[in-house]
Each structure stands twice: as structure tokens, then as C-alpha cells.
Structure to design on (589 residues):
């Protein structure tokens, strides 16, 4: 028998996520929320998924990743405003410029690990934030870039306006699905397996002949590119880009999303975590201005008592009910099937 | 000039004011099993670390098939066909036994930057990995995570990971460390079998193990090679006799 659980299409979590997201505009008002919130959640899901390539799958703690989300947002705005680019070009610009910023940072930090790695990412994150504050002529300083337009989606044979939140929502959903597929394939590819090996034992990975530096470098660049894409969508949603998007806060939020959601044990952890965080922000935030204090306490409790996060709790509950042991993605059985 | 597969000449390594290796030289011929023996703290593991690129020697030269590989990065040395196991186990604990060896195969290394295909289809990585597990006697444990394996099985997997690199030269650092008599017998059997296919350098302080397997042995003490020869020659060596080999008969 060939286990199928490493196939994306057999993942219940995929279908639950897709059905919920695709239908959200139909029911989101009825449960007292609003379409823009669903849009924001999806953008953060994308950012968190890309971030988790680094934190969860490669074990590399970047605590300054908001910088690349921010670079993506600014890049989207600048490519549109300064060069009059259309939607696709601005989106690609956001992705590539964030990737380039990621490559510069990664070039300096990829030979480090652990606490030094984490500290350097924070330092670089602050550098980008500082640039966004001070480089007035380009970034608009504290005011940021205003008047970013929701340009229409040009598919060659027809155009869709993205003015409404719902239209933009479905455009974002399309890019979200592409991101989910790309990252899923990536972590199950040879590259993903080596990255998982690097996470567990960097020394041994080098001694069996893998170029550890290059793997860490590429993981960082790809993760920054996804953050940039999400940042570009955020600029599109907000119709502006401002220093706050690349603040240390945003860098911290994505870490909290991924850890609370369970990114360390599940591919879907960041998706759960992003939804949980933004909903908590809105729902708790409606009651109290100090919602982040309560969320922070929850985060601390989670890290102390259930570091596997929500996804980990779900897995533990299922394991208890069904008593099925988790199977590896590639077992001896699958190897022998191919040989036969 | 001899046609040794591997040679180390005049290696010296100093940590601060401690001279850990001084003037260590030995040669390993193709197909040979070369033992490095000595008491704890004699510099055996440091010697391995210098030979496999973890440390750069202060003096001396290491060469593989005549090519100077002194001070190369461990990755570069691994790619030239030298693989090593570790005394303190150094596995990918969350991977299964199969994944541990698969990630070490040359096929996975070649396909390592493939980001779209499934790892399962990275050349023959997993087929070769399954064969390697068979060789080290872990076929039944292929789908068990490394951290859940017994100590003896982990020692076997430690060798398996190095073997999966398909090396021309295999360094084993105290493969029997921490094992009981049964475990030692199992590793002994395994190394005897491997010896038929690959050139091996093995560090041991278990003399019985080494004398039964090695073609040549270098005795290291205080960072120096104090004696060398075949097991038969060494049996006659006063130092070796003093260190209770005599009791073995």
C-alpha cells in the first residue's frame, strides 16, 4: 500500500481551509465580521506559511521577518507609483525586491546559528525599518506611501476590477493557493528533506556532503520572497505602505502566529495561527485595548505547556482517539512498491 | 612514492598551549583496514577531526589519491569520498532510519536543490538507502525514528549514515563505544563485512576488536604515533604488552 498522506490533495486540512476561505465572503457578515478582515487573515496566513519554511522546517529563528513583508509592501507601491507598472509587474516587483533584500541579509547570517542568527535577524530588521523611516524621498518617511491603487487584474483577454474587498479577496485567494502548493512541494522535495536534516543536525549534514550554507541561504531568500508577496498584497489591501508594516511588532506577530498555530509540528500550523491571531485581535480587541497583553499571556502559557501549538493539540487528541501512529512521508513500503 | 589511497604526513595540532597532535603520519592502502589505537585522551578523535576537515592542522599534509585535501571544509572532503561516523552519536533524530541514510546518499545530494519533485523520486536515493539499511541490519527498523531506536541500533545507524555516502574511504570513530559484548560482536561482524568493499580507518581502544580486524595499526599516545605495524608485530611491542594485551593471549 502506498501511503498517501504526503500528497497535498489528500490533506483534509487543505480542503477545510479552501472551503472556509472560498466561502468566507458569503457568511463573514452574518457572524459579525467583515470581508476586509478575512482578506487580512489570508494575507497573514501567506506570510506565516512562508515564514514557517524558515522557523518550522529549517529551524532558523528569524525575528526580523516583518522587514521583508514591509519591503514587499513598499516595493509594490514604488514599482506602481514610480514606474507606472500594472498589477502583475508590481506584484513580481514586490516578490523579487523582497527576495533581493532577503539575499543580502542571508549572505551575512547564513554561517551563524541559534541565538546569533536570531540577534542578527533582529538587527537587520531594524535596519530596514530605519531606512523606511528616514529615506523620505523614496519611502515618504513616517507618512509612508499613500495612494497605492488597486489596479485591475489583467488576464490578457479580460480585466477584473479589484476595487471591492471581495474581488481583491478572491485574487488573494488565488495567490494563496499557489503559495500553499509551492511550499508544500518544496518541503517534500529533496531540498526540503536536506533542509529538515540541517535543522536537526547541521554538523552531520555538512559531513555527509551537503552545502549547509547554501541551503540556509536559499531557505531565507525563498521565505523573504513569500513575505514580500504577502506584503505586496497588504499594500494593495491597505492602499498604502508605512513603516509600521516592517516594525519589530509585525516580526513578533508572525512568530506568535506560527508558534501558537503549531508550525513546529504541522504544515498547517501557520494557517491556523494566523486566523487565530487576527480573530483574537479583533474579538478581544473589541472588549479591551490591552488585548495583546492577554494574547501575550496565552502565548507564554502555550510555549510553556504546549509548545506544539494548536495543531499539536489536535494531533495529540486524534492520536489518542484513533491510536494510529504517525507514518513517515516516505516509508520502506513505498520504496519497495516502486522496486517491484 | 607508494600508491597509498590516503596518507597523513607530519600532522600537528595545538589547542592553546596544549599540543594535541605532533608529527602524526600514517598511510592507508586501498582495501586495507587501518586501526588507530590508544588510551582515552591520546588524541585519536582530534586526529580524525583534522583528517575529516573539522579542524585545520597547524602543520602537515593530508592527501587522498595524491590530491592535497589538507584543511578543506568537511563538505568538500565528504564530496571527495571520505565519510565518517562519530563517537558521540550524531544522527538526524526526528528522521526515520530510512530517511537518515537516504539524506546521506549521493543521489539526494545531486538532487538536493530540486524544489518541485518529490524527495521519493530523487534518483535512486531511497532504493540505495534501503540497501544500506539491509547491510547494517536495520531493515526491520526502517520506519522507526532514530530517537526511538535502541542504543545498539543507533550505533549501527551511525555507521549506516556514513556508509550511505558511498565513500571510497570510511572513518569509524569508536564504533563500539558504550556497547556490551553482544553489541561489540555485532559491530565486529558488520565491519568485517564492510571491509570487503571499502577501505576503512577505525579508531578503537578495544584492542581485541581491533586486533581481530585490522591489517595495520597505529598506536597513538600523547598525540604521537608510538608504534605501528600489523597486529602480529604489535603483539611483540612492549608498550602494547604493558597495556594488558598480554591478558588476551
Amino acid at each position: 500500500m502506498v501511503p498517501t498522506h504526503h500528497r497535498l490533495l489528500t490533506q483534509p486540512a487543505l480542503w477545510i481551509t479552501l472551503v472556509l476561505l472560498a466561502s468566507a465572503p458569503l457568511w463573514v457578515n452574518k457572524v459579525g465580521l467583515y470581508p476586509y478582515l478575512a482578506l487580512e487573515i489570508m494575507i497573514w496566513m501567506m506570510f506565516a506559511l512562508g515564514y514557517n519554511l524558515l522557523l518550522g522546517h529549517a529551524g532558523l529563528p528569524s525575528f526580523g521577518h516583518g522587514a521583508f513583508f514591509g519591503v514587499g509592501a513598499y516595493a509594490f507601491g514604488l514599482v506602481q507609483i514610480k514606474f507606472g507598472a500594472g498589477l502583475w509587474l508590481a506584484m513580481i516587483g514586490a516578490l523579487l525586491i523582497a527576495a533581493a533584500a532577503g539575499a543580502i541579509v542571508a549572505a551575512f547570517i547564513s554561517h551563524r546559528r541559534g541565538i546569533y542568527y536570531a540577534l542578527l535577524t533582529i538587527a537587520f530588521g531594524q535596519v530596514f525599518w530605519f531606512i523606511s523611516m528616514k529615506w523620505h524621498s523614496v519611502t515618504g518617511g513616517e507618512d509612508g506611501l499613500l495612494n497605492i491603487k488597486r489596479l485591475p487584474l489583467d488576464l490578457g483577454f479580460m480585466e477584473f476590477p479589484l476595487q471591492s474587498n471581495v474581488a481583491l479577496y478572491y485574487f488573494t485567494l488565488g495567490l494563496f493557493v499557489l503559495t500553499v502548493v509551492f511550499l508544500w512541494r518544496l518541503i517534500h522535495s529533496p531540498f526540503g528533506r536536506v533542509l529538515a536534516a540541517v535543522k536537526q543536525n547541521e554538523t552531520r549534514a555538512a559531513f555527509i556532503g551537503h552545502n549547509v550554507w547554501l541551503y540556509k541561504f536559499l531557505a531565507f531568500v525563498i521565505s523573504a520572497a513569500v513575505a514580500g508577496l504577502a506584503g505586496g498584497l497588504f499594500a494593495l489591501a491597505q492602499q498604502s505602505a508605512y513603516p509600521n508594516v516592517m516594525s519589530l511588532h509585525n516580526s513578533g506577530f508572525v512568530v506568535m502566529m506560527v508558534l501558537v498555530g503549531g508550525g513546529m509540528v504541522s504544515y498547517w500550523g501557520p494557517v491556523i495561527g494566523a486566523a487565530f491571531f487576527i480573530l483574537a485581535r479583533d474579538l478581544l480587541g473589541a472588549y479591551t485595548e490591552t488585548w495583546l497583553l492577554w494574547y501575550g499571556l496565552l502565548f507564554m502559557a502555550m510555549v510553556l505547556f504546549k509548545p506544539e501549538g494548536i495543531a499539536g493539540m489536535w494531533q495529540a487528541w486524534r492520536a489518542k482517539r484513533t491510536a494510529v501512529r504517525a507514518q513517515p512521508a516516505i516509508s520502506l513500503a513505498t520504496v519497495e512498491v516502486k522496486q517491484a | 612514492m607508494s600508491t597509498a589511497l590516503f596518507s597523513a604526513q607530519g600532522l600537528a595540532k595545538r589547542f592553546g598551549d596544549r599540543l594535541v597532535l605532533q608529527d602524526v603520519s600514517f598511510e592507508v592502502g586501498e582495501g586495507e583496514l587501518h586501526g588507530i589505537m590508544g588510551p582515552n585522551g591520546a588524541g585519536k578523535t582530534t586526529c580524525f577531526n583534522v583528517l575529516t576537515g573539522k579542524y585545520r592542522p597547524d602543520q602537515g599534509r593530508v592527501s587522498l589519491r595524491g590530491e592535497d585535501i589538507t584543511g578543506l571544509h568537511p563538505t568538500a572532503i565528504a564530496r571527495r569520498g571520505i565519510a565518517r561516523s562519530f563517537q558521540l552519536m550524531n544522527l538526524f533524530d526526528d528522521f526515520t532510519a530510512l530517511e537518515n541514510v537516504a539524506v546521506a546518499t549521493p543521489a539526494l545530494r545531486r538532487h538536493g536543490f530540486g524544489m518541485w519533485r518529490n524527495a521519493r523520486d530523487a534518483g535512486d536515493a531511497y532504493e540505495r538507502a534501503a540497501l544500506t539499511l539491509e547491510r547494517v541490519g536495520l531493515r526491520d527498523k526502517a520506519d522507526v525514528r532514530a530517537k526511538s531506536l535502541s542504543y545498539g541500533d543507533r550505533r549501527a545507524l551511525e555507521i549506516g549514515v556514513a556508509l550511505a555516502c558511498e565513500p571510497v574511504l570510511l572513518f569509524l570513530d569508536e564504533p563500539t563505544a558504550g556497547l556490551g559484548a553482544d553489541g561489540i560482536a555485532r559491530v565486529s561482524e558488520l565491519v568485517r563485512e564492510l571491509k570487503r568493499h571499502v577501505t576503512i580507518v577505525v579508531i578503537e581502544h578495544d584492542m581485541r576488536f581491533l586486533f581481530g580486524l585490522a591489517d595495520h595499526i597505529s598506536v597513538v599516545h600523547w598525540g604521537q604515533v608510538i608504534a605501528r605495524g600489523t597486529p602480529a608485530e604489535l603483539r611483540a611491542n612492549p608498550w602494547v604488552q604493558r597495556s594488558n594485551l598480554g591478558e588476551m593471549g
